[in-house]
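Please, structure for the following, as tokens.
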Amino acid sequence: MKRSEINRYIREALEFWEGLGFRMPPYARWSKSDWQAHAGECKEIFDLQIGWDVTSFGSNEFLKTGLLLYTLRNGRLGSSEYPKPYAEKIMMVRENQVTPLHFHWHKEEDIINRGGGNLVIELYHADPSANSLCDGSFPVSVNGMTRTMNPGDKLILTPGESVTMKHYHAHKFYGEPGSGSSMIGEVSMVNDDNTDNCFIAGAIRFVPVTEDEEPQFLLACEYRSFIR
């Protein structure tokens, strides 16, 4: 992805979320020089990759296949230094912008529509031990109520609704056409995007950046590359 695209999409997300009344941490707007000035205080942020994440999953078409999110808090599995057992993210999902089908080997999560448009989630039952999908119906907790789903069924979350995703729930999601962009929250067990995502058809989780302009914001995965 081009740095100019990343800068623009982050600016748009900030405007979108704050238009819905969601306030971001002060350092969500920090520049590279701001991070450099505060680097000595930010070990936890750097280690746990708190911050911006913008990916096209290797598609080169972010608006069709991509996701923008901000990790607000996190821990580290099995760590005595960072024993926090939970994580939280906020996402901007555009109409028809697909996050590819995947499941997690460890993480369980609640996906919450915090406002804006509707979110469509296509659900499947996965076998994490075989890295594959399964046949047959399966239960899912939607708004705290059990619902039986079949592979490929579509769940539509309107603002205020949520679903609990077990680690064996493979899911693909995108904004419902005609409903506008959605602000999506995720409250989960500890998040590790480096080792805990299984994309059924394969995907590049962290994509290379083409530096066509200066970074207005730093991505969480690149703090150590820019800050000394």
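The chain has one domain: 3-226. The longest helix spans residues 3-19.
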